[in-house]
Write a structure and sequence with these properties.
Bound molecules: zinc ion
CATH topology: Sufe protein. Chain: A
Largest sheet: 3 strands, antiparallel
Strand content: 15-25%
Helix content: 40-55%
Order of helices and strands: HEEEHHHH
CATH architecture: Alpha-Beta Complex
Number of helices: 5
């Protein structure tokens, strides 16, 4: 399967070199969430705007390793213009893909474990490229950083919590 791994590596590098939706949005009306991964020093700032149950706009800033930044770029491209419920399903699917190995490590996320989700590569599209990360457990938090920030942002918006800024 060397061909597939090469393809996945290309997808990740492409998002790292040409990040999608890079920038900032005005807060408010946008909501701002910061994520930090002390294990690697990755920082991701997610700006998201939700109108009528749809993620109408999304921007990413911050800095960090190629996995964290590529994952944030792929997250933004996948979630933008999707209904919030579809975004939540993607978060669950992505975290399930990433947690398959994390659980066996007895990680500190064990108590926040999501319900099992059947992950089909077709559902995740390009995100499947990040599957290879599970072979490098220290990088899993790099890949999930922006997704956790997105989940926090959607929760805060749903609860009417003001942005952290
Ligand atoms: Zn990292």
């Amino acid at each position: 399967m060397a061909g597939l791994e090469d393809l996945y590596r290309e997808i990740i590098l492409d998002h790292y070199r040409s990040p999608r939706n890079r920038g900032e949005l005005t807060v408010p009306p946008a909501h701002r969430v910061e994520g930090f991964n002390p294990l690697c020093g990755d920082e991701v700032v997610v700006y998201l705007q939700v109108e009528d149950g749809v993620v109408t706009d999304l921007a990413i800033s911050g800095q960090g390793c190629s996995i964290s930044q590529a994952s944030a770029s792929m997250m933004s491209a996948t979630v933008k213009n999707k209904p919030v419920e579809a975004a939540r399903t993607l978060i669950r699917s992505f975290k399930a893909m990433m947690s398959i190995h994390e659980q066996s490590l007895g990680g500190d996320d064990a108590d926040t474990k999501e319900e099992p989700v059947t992950v089909s590569p077709d559902d995740l599209g390009e995100l499947a490229a990040l599957q290879g990360v599970v072979k490098f457990p220290v990088r899993i938090k790099c890949a999930t950083l922006s997704w956790n920030a997105l989940a926090q942002g959607l929760d805060e918006i749903a609860a009417g919590v003001p942005s952290t800024s």
